[in-house]
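Researcher: I'm preparing a figure for a lab meeting and need a structural model of a single chain. I don't have an experimental structure, so a prediction will have to do for now. The sequence is pasted below. Please return the structure as tokens so I can convert it later.
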Amino acid sequence: MVPSIVDCHEFMNKYEMLNNIKAHSVVVEKVAGIIARGLMASGETVSLGITSAGALMHDIAKTPCLRTGEDHAAMGKMICIENDLAEIAEIVGQHVRLKNYDPQGDISEKEIVYYADKRVNHDVVVSLEERLKYLLLRYGKDNHHLRIRIRWNFDMAKEVEKKLFAHLPFSPEEVGNLI
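Model: Understood. Here is the structure written out token by token.
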């Protein structure tokens, strides 16, 4: 089942999502929706419903994982599966790190949500470079290996950005103004 916007907000409440994480998820959904609608208008086959639901639910497990230290993407995927939300489980499970990315393949909803998440710092649309700088300061300041993984992940995000925006009538820099 693909949850509606209302369903997603009910899940956010059920899993006690912190208000700042809800605000982040709402902005990620706005960015993902703009991209999905632009791609659909250019003839790409993506689902706005799946994209929106995946974006709203991408951090569904973040609040409990802040306490436990568990992987919030993996736990979020499990929450989706447990709630019969298989259509968005992979999007939630891969919003931090994409697996099996194909730069030449069809555009997928998980790529859109992955990218949109990288463009939103708290509840503000920022460039990939600004988001990278924030994550390196917040999570990678004392961990060389983590810094390398964060940078690698943002190299991937730049590749996804190229793929998405090759089909869009607006640039990455214009996204924030389209919300």
